[in-house]
Amino acid sequence: MSSVDIIALDCITLVEIFGGLLINGFITTIKILDWWECQKMKPLDKLFLGLGLSRFLTMCLYVFNIINRFFSLNVYQIKVLDWTLNTICLFLDFSSLWFSMWLSVLYYVKVAIFKSNILIRIKLRLSELVPYMILSSIFISLVSGFLFAYNFSSDLDIMIPYSNMDHNQSEEPYLEFAIPSYIFGHFIPFIIVSISTFFLLQTILVHMRHISSNASSITTPRMNAHHTAIH
């Protein structure tokens, strides 16, 4: 990459990053202010707060990486800082995916109408299960990021162009850590999000068909239940 291409790429990336900072910072601030005023937070809002905060901090880390390269701070040359920043980078990335996964699952559970007693119990105990979801997400993300970052000898600054990275380093010793990290950090959340989103959309379409076919009786208790489920 030429210097002009790198500068152009950095400018485009900065616009996207600051857009992400504004959006996720706004979500995080609103959720914190709501919690401060009410002294209580809904289960889904807890996950939204975790998602917004993790993505906001990820954007901050991207900005830090650009500053590090622009001013040639060489922070990643210090072993302890290199390992710490790599762990934080992976932890934030993995945790945001896990929070997104739980939100998709919970929205489906909240909207769908179940006949199974087990699923009905889960639906009624969402407020009790959310703290365990948050703790499990943090634990899995932290362990996966720690194991990979601790055994990876190069920095994980994704802002560095691939052409500038060291290609002489063998990747085989790190596959045993990269594969589990990918599975628990990316693959599992992605698969569950895809499945839950598919069923969520299917459930919403069913509700919409019920409303459309019973437009004349939209105020009946049954139709009000469908309308409430969608919202």
From TrEMBL:
Pfam families reported in the protein's UniProt record: TAS2R
Keywords from the named record: G-protein coupled receptor, Membrane, Receptor, Sensory transduction, Taste, Transducer, Transmembrane, Transmembrane helix
Top-level taxon of the source organism: Eukaryota
Main location per the UniProt record: membrane
SUPFAM superfamilies, A to Z: Family A G protein-coupled receptor-like (SSF81321)
Family: Belongs to the G-protein coupled receptor T2R family.
UniProt protein name: Taste receptor type 2 member 40
Source organism per UniProt: Engystomops pustulosus
